[in-house]
Amino acid sequence: MEDVPQGEALEEDLACCDLYVKLQIILWTNTMVFFEELFYTLFRPSTTKEAVNHHTDNEYYAAQNLGRKCRGKCKQLFPD
């Protein structure tokens, strides 16, 4: 029982533990924000007008191009 801090020493140890936990929470939050931004940057759809060599959804891409070329005819081209 002599190794267990008491009084002021206990309060100082608790303050150090509290500070450590708060710093870990800040570090974890900043790390998660970094990975969220990285994930968003890597996997968001492109907004450029560049030609795409490989489409993961060719049907959607073709419909998008038809919609741009034939303005106002969506109901005729895509009845559902």
What's the layout of helices and strands?
Layout: H1 8-43, H2 58-69, H3 74-77
Class inferred from helices and paired strands: mainly alpha
- Tally of helical runs: 3
Order of helices and strands: HHH
Q: What percent of the residues sit in helical stretches (DSSP H or I)?
A: 55-70%
**Strands, total number:** 0
Distance between the termini: 77 Å
Reported for the largest beta sheet, the result is: none
- Unreliable stretches (pLDDT < 50, length at least 5) are none
DSSP strand content = under 5%
- What gyration radius follows from the Cα positions, in whole Å? 29 Å
Taken from the alpha-carbon principal axes, the silhouette is rod-shaped
What is the residue-averaged pLDDT? 78
Which features characterize this protein?
single chain, 80 residues, mainly alpha, 3 helices, rod-shaped, DM4_12
Walk me through what this model shows.
The structure is a single chain. This protein has 80 residues and is an all-alpha fold. It has a domain at 7-44. It contains 3 helices and no strands. It has helices at residues 8-43, 58-69, 74-77. The mean pLDDT is 78. InterPro entries: DM4_12. Pfam families: DM4_12.
Outline:
The chain has 80 residues and is an all-alpha fold.
